[in-house]
Amino acid sequence: MSSRTDSSARRPPAAVIRGLARAAALLLALFALPWIPHAATAAEGDATGAEDVLQPFKAEFVLEWRGMNAASASLELTRQAGSHYSYVSRNNARGVFRAVLPGELIQTSRLLVEAGQVRPLSYRGDDGSPDQRRDVSLDFDWERQRVTGTAETKPVDLALQSGLQDIMSVQVALIVDLLEGRKPSMYTVVDKNRIKEYLYTGEGTARIDTTLGPLDTVIWSSRRPGSERVTRVWYAPTLGFAPVRAERRDGDRLEWAMRLVALRR
Q1: Is 7 inside any structural domain?
Q2: Does residue 247 form part of some domain?
Q3: Taking the model in full, what pTM does it have?
Q4: Domain for residue 35, yes or no?
Q5: Is residue 139 included in any domain, yes or no?
Q6: How many CB atoms lie under 10 A from the CB of residue 48?
């Protein structure tokens, strides 16, 4: 009886697993930056725009929850015709986490990077199960100025305001802002059937130890207005602002941490 109780206490609930996988997808796109040849190019006035320096890549990561290896994740950036790109993230739970999320969570964002701006075209989220009630499908019609689709069986029909992103394309918008020499402060994001705002704040610099050796980094945090839950990312300017560490805290409590394990162009 007690052993079953202890085991249950250690087993994360399904909501936690899905939250971890979704957090991985949100952070994975940030790691596109190591493949940008020179992040300061656009800011220095070169004619080359952000859409011309984003390079295809595949990256692999480990996501840790309470000290446990919770999931493996990958993200692949592919350039389509012209300035069109696609991001595909794949997340797989490990160990006890597979008991509540046995399938592969896949998220795909198609987007356009043009004139220093990012425009999402479509977003698809599949939780890996045969049951499609948790899937999300969104289409961005910039001519009609509407976002339409379904989110966990609920219909979506929202006004498409300037700068609106999906939960993956927002990370590309951050990349482009850095390339253009802009300091991000807020992004507006479609999350399922709701529009949310996220505040971004620069938190100074730090020299940290990494698998690549000691690196000087700049720290950026993001959060919902009024929330105590904060995501922090450590970026290395010498690596084209590549993130080398990420974590989320609720107040002083560490919820999860994420680290890069492999890079491939």
Answers
A1: yes
A2: no
A3: 0.78
A4: yes
A5: yes
A6: 13
Strand 186-191 to strand 194-210: parallel, antiparallel, or no bridges (unpaired)? antiparallel
Q: Is 231 helix (H, G, I), strand (E, B) or coil?
A: strand
Q: At 120, list the tokens.
A: 């999402």
Instruction: Indicate the number of domains in the chain.
Output: 1
Which whole number is the average pLDDT over 102-131? Answer: 91
Residue 143, C-beta contacts closer than 8 angstroms, at least 6 positions apart: none
Q: Which two tokens stand for residue 132?
A: 């499609």
Strands (E), 160-212: 165-166, 186-191, 194-210
Tell which residue, 123, 114, 173, 171, has the closest CA to residue 147: 123
pLDDT for 242: 65
Q: Are 12 and 63 in contact (CB under 8 A)?
A: no
Q: What residues contact 135, with CB distance under 8 A and at least 6 apart?
A: 124, 125, 126, 127, 150, 152
Cite the beta strand spans of 211-241 per DSSP E. 213-223, 229-236
Question: Cα–Cα distances in Å, from 171 out to 118, 186, 261?
Answer: 10, 12, 20
Query: Which range marks the domain in which residue 18 is found?
Result: 2-190
